[in-house]
Amino acid sequence: MILNSVLRHEHHACSPATDASLSLITIDDQPLFAAAMASLSEPISDTSFTASLCWSEALQLRKAIVEGHLCLFSAADGDLSMMLPPLPLSPTEAWRLPDAVEACFAIMDEANAEGPGVNRSRIEYVSEEMAGRIQGTTWMELVQEPMHGDYVYPRDDLVELAGGDLKGKRKLRSKFMRENPDITTGPIRREDIPECIRLLAHWREAADIRHEGEANERLMGVDILRQRDEQSTIRFLELIEPLGLESMTVRVAGRLVGFTIGEWLTPTMGLVCVEKTEPGLAGAPQFIYSEFCRTSFAGATEINAGDDWGIASLRYTKTSYRPSRMLAKYTIARRPRPETGSPETTIVRTLTQRRKVSPAAEVTMQPNMTVRRATTEDASSIIAVENLAFTDESDRFSLGQIRRLIANPRARVGVAEVDGVISGWCVGLIRTHLRWRSGRVYTVAVSPEMAGKGLGRALLNWSLDTLEAEGVRRVYLEVRQSNQSAINLYASAGFIKIADLPAYYGPNADGIRMRRVAAEPVA
User: Fold this and answer.
1) Residue 95 maps to which CATH number?
2) Is 322 within the bounds of a domain?
3) How many domains does the chain divide into?
4) Which member of 289, 490, 504, 505 is catalytic?
5) Which pLDDT tens digit goes with each residue over 380-421?
6) Core vs surface per residue 189-219: b (16+ CB within 10 A) or e
7) Is 490 a catalytic residue?
8) Catalytic pick among 246, 263, 302, 478
C-alpha cells in the first residue's frame, strides 16, 4: 500500500498480514463509532463520532477494522498516522489490542516507507486511559510524548463568569449586552447556514491578518489550521440536524454576529466544538460562550472546550477562562522518537528572558570569531552557554531539547566560536504555510562574558542568511514589549512591528510580533 492510493480510493485492500481496508467515514458509521467509544470511561474531545465525521475531509481520515478494533488513519500531513488509538468494538475484543497496535504500525510503515520514512508512523490523540492500556499490554517498545490536552471548566463558572479571575470577561459580556440591547439568540436553522458561512470566511480573513506568520508547535502555519477549521466547520453546520447537535446563533438587530455548535460528550459534560464571532466585536465571544453553556448544557457539571492545537495565542485564551483540569493526550510511537513534537513545545523565547548581567563592553566584532552549523557533538557546549546566560532554570533548554533541535530537519542551529570555544548559539525555524514557507528566529543566546562583542548580532545574521539561502523570504519573531535592547537589535536587522501580543508571556507581560521581509534576489 502506498500513501497516494489511500487518498485516491474510497476502499483499499491492505496487505494480507493486516487483513484490513481503509474506507471513508459516513454518517451510517455512527453505531460503529458508538460501540468502539463505549469502552472509554473518560472520553476526550477527539473520541467523538461527530468530530471524526466533520473533520474527515479536512484531515483526510479513513477508518479500518483491525483485529476487532476501530482504527482511524489520517493522511493530511504528507504521511500516514493515526488520529485515535485502536478502540475495541466489544469487550470481548479488547484482548486483541496488542495485535491491533502492531498491525496498525505495519499499515502506517508500509505507507510511510515510500515517503517520509517509517519513523513518522505514530498514534496521536491517545488519552491517559488508552495510553495505559497500550503501554501495559503490547510487547512493542513504545515511547509517548505529551500533546496539547483538553481544557475542562465547571459549567457554572462559564455561565456566571463569576469571581475575580473572570472579572474582565464579565465586564466585556456586560458591555456587549449594554451596547446591543436588541440581541436575539436561537438555534441554527438550515436557512441560517449561508450567513454562518459568510461570517466564517470573514473570521478567517481577519485572523490571517492578525496572526500573520504564526505557527503551532509543529511549525505548521496556523493559516493551514484555519483552512482546515473552516472546512470542518461547514461540515458541522451541515450536520446539525442529522446528528442532533446543540447550536446557537447570536444576532444584533437581526444581523448575525456569532454562532456556536456543540454536543454532549457524556451525560454530565458538554463539548463546545465550534465558536465563531464577528471579528473585533468586543464582548461577543464572552456572551455567546456563557449563553450557550447556560441554555444548551443545563444539567451538565463540566464543559470541555477541546485543545489549543499547539497555538500559543489560543492556549492563552483558553487558559484565561481558568480551567479546573486538563485531560491529557499523548502521541505514541516506536523508538527512535519521531519529530511529532517540536522545539517550540516547551520554551518560547528570543532574547526575552532574564539574563545574567555582565559588565558593559563596547560593541565590537571579534576578529577570531566564526559562526557555523551546529552538530550533535556541540550539545554539551551549548548547555554550558545556557547555564551561563540564563539565571532561571526554567528558561534554559535541556540537553535533550538541544539535541532534538540539532537533529530536527526544520531547525537551523548555529554556534559562535571565539578562539575555538563555543560562546553563543542560535536557532532559526522553517515553518510551512498554505502557499509559502516562513522562518522564525527562535533563540539567540550568548555567554555573559562575551556580551557586547557582536556575537548576538553575528548569530542573528547567520540565522537570517541561512533561512534566506533556503528561499525563506519572510522571517518572524516574538519579543517582550519591555525588552527594548532586543527590539532595537531586531529593528537594525530590518524587522518591523506588525502586531501587539497582550499577555503573550503571561499576566502583565505583553509581547510584540515582528517581521522581516528579505529583498527579492536580483536576476
Assistant:
1) 3.40.630.30
2) no
3) 3
4) 490
5) 999 999 988 887 776 788 888 899 899 888 899 999 999 889
6) eeebeeebeebbeebbeebbeebbbbbbbbb
7) yes
8) 478
